[in-house]
Fold this protein.
Amino acid sequence: MGWLNPLNHYGCVLLSVSLLQLIEARLPAYSPKKPLLRPLMKRSAVAMVLQVRQGELNILMIKRAEREGDPWSGHMAFPGGRMDKTDANGYSVAVRETEEEVGLTLGPQDRCLGRLSDLNARPRKHTLGMAVSPFIFHLEREVEFTPNYEVAEVVWVPLEFLLDSGNREKMTWDYKGVKIPLPCYQYEQRCIWGLSLMMLDELMDLVEGGDNPLRPRWRRA
């Protein structure tokens, strides 16, 4: 069994608490971007859940199940989905879908710290696409997840891992025969890229108080 330096552990706790405090302090004054034609677009929302675990600030992600016909099959993502007629707003979508997908019921004790900019998912010719709204929550209690058929795995990813630009890699996305180089993270053999990475980049920009030149903007909506 390895020996844990208590001073190092204490330093990690302080850093994680500082990161969380920065997010809590900056989100209320943050002005997320919204598409001009948002009222005419299809809507969806996701929950970006933060929790300090074993001294490190982590963010909850899921690996989607492999499903034929699903454009996000097998991707790393955040719990979320499409807006139903019964949903009052994007926040309601994020809460409902999180409960359906991983069995986590986000209640009043799980504070919603704010939201990030809408992203346009799956824009097609002659369509407006879908506006995806990310909502950020702070979870302070222990929970047990019960993933449904849409979710293959629930994963906690340390925010410090993502903030370290040295962990950023490149991948090649084969889109209809065209090979496109894209940024990504490989966390324990799980590839984080695409819309989920765009959301994380915006969150990390918020933490750092500006754009990181080692994490350049790319296809952000």
Observations:
- Residues 10-163 form a domain with the Nucleoside Triphosphate Pyrophosphohydrolase fold (CATH 3.90.79.10).
- The mean pLDDT is 87.
- The chain has four helices and eleven strands.
